[in-house]
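Quick one, T. Sequence first:
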Amino acid sequence: MPTTGMEYNEFVGSLGPYGNGNPVNTELHVRYGVRGGKYYDWTIELIAREGDVDSFRATGERPVRYVMDSFSVEDGTVVHRVRTGPGPDDFEVSVARELRAGDGDLVDSGYNFFMKQLADQWDARHETRDPRTVATFGFAQNNRDQDFRDERYPWVRSTVVCIDDDPADDVVVERLKHYFPDGGTVAVHCRSISRMKFLKVDAGSRPDDGEAINGGDDTTMTATGYTSIGMMVDAVYRGDDWIDEAFSS
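Structure tokens:
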């Protein structure tokens, strides 16, 4: 599809272990282009992440990431890639759908179709949903709503989705810096109250950097030692002026 006039955005969130005996932690990474409220260009990826926050803290060595499964709009088709081996080119590639001129509505609805297909396949590999899976797919569903994107939260861009128990350094220093080095937004699922809270994060921020992490107003936070992202939310939003969204799983 032509990309003229397209506005692009991205989000990523952890889903938990891949399943089917494969314990590797997996992330959902989505990039989409919007024009006139419709998704005319998009890529949906399941990305394996090898390495944990303890190793990152101890050595500073970032986890290794690689695509496991993806759907993307490319050259008039929807392409499906499934990893078959450890090499960079070890993929089974197939055309999931042919596209023609004037198929804009089909491309837009195809995003929902293939996102649901990935979600259904994920659920089939797991008896229960990891809380991070709930948060990530929940954000994806809310973000699909044009009113959510354009009217209520137009500043929520380049977003890392997480849950309140996630370590702040893992979310802000590792994940957000890897995917969005120029800064972005953290969407925190506060499970006890079933709400999503949003934090804006500037480039190069750390969990103890009060000047760079905020909730969109003049509030700042300072944290030392082990800090969960939920603790950061509590520190930034001390009053009732939450920037949040009702969240149902």
